[in-house]
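Interim report to the steering committee. The following record documents the input for XRCC1 protein (165 residues).
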Amino acid sequence: MAEIPFTRVVSVTSADPRHPAENLLRPEDGGKWRGAAAGEKQLSVVLELGDSRPIHSLHIGNDGAAFVEVLLGSSAGGDFQVLLPSAALMSPSESRAGAGPGRVRLFGPQALVKRPATPTARWDRLQVVLSQPYCQSRPYGLAFIRAFSAPQEGEEPPPAPVSDL
């Protein structure tokens, strides 16, 4: 699976100067994006994709958000379309206690909304919408987000993560 790079931040609703949204362009550097203040109901960032290949999976590193939703859009205009419906990153009790804010979620093809293959559709924008309705005392955001295309012919997909019960 090839990673689809992000080339720039198109827009952002709120950002802490120490944790700007531009950090999401370089996930390997370990920088985070956080909202400017505690208590913000919703944050969003629009990232430009470096390639318009279909997205096969997403890896999202949380930084205190309770929910995430990801949408696809085009620089040519039009409405954003849902790619990942709202998904929980933390439970209400975890949010209130501040437990596990740095969890990582992997969303494979079964979690993503299927797009019809049309030659005219060019999705080159990714909008990430975060919310944290359960805790108003801490700012939140993302540690990272990575988008991957489907494996190429002959390329082996990475092994599935193994978890001990």
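The chain is about 5% helix and 40% strand. The committee is asked to note this result when reviewing the revised timeline.
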